[in-house]
Predict the structure.
Amino acid sequence: MVNRKELNPEASPEAAFGARLRRAREAQGWLQDDLGARIGYSGRHVSGVETGHKPPTRRFSVAVDAALGIEGTADSFEREWGEIKHGSLLEGFPEYVAHEGRAVEIRLYEVGIIPGLLQTPEYARAQEDGHVERGSITREQAAERVAFLGERQAALERPRPPLVLVVMDESCLHHAVGGTEVMNAQLQRLVDVAARPNWILQVAPFSIGARRAFNLPINLLTLADRSVVCYAESQTQGHLDREATSVLPMLTAYHQLQGEALSPAASVAMINQLRKGIS
């Protein structure tokens, strides 16, 4: 343990993979040699992946999933490897998603587009098709993103689902994606989800002006130990923050935003009014 290297999962997607691999291995009480013996690799190779000196491969990831019994799940290392390989996740996001699947409370704020966890498959595909048309991703990457989003949504359907609080800027409702039929179904999904007991959906209207707490999307997760992590991203970068000194002010700002936003009932009324306009 003297030579144990401290890992920085925010350094890169590969670093996040390695840090999560170490946590998963240690949770089983296995040494690197123990895991290596179970998956057909040396302990030195496992160490290289954990510290970022060796890139993970699909074969390695599949073997780890089998050893941990998480094949085909939202937490699978094969899934994370695929996202790394195709470069379709921003830094910090793989680790965020691992936390999201176990969070007891999820707070979301989005500008411009419907939050991913609320998107219909048709809306999600139309959104990714736009990126393909711009040439920023391939069709294969678009399909992977849509499938990955479906896995994230499915991970919320568990025996004890998290409380999900969503504040959407009003622009999310007006930004047309995929045409009339897609938008109508998407708005209906918002109404349906808002009726669930573990979801609270609010719209931050344009009228709040400068009182809007955030100008970029924000995700806040409360974990089982009541710690809070924050994930924020720009067009090209993502950042996962666990430091209480910076995360707690974000949580306070989110509460202030909820106070400025429309009530859940008024938010649903706005959504229904917009649906009538595009039907």
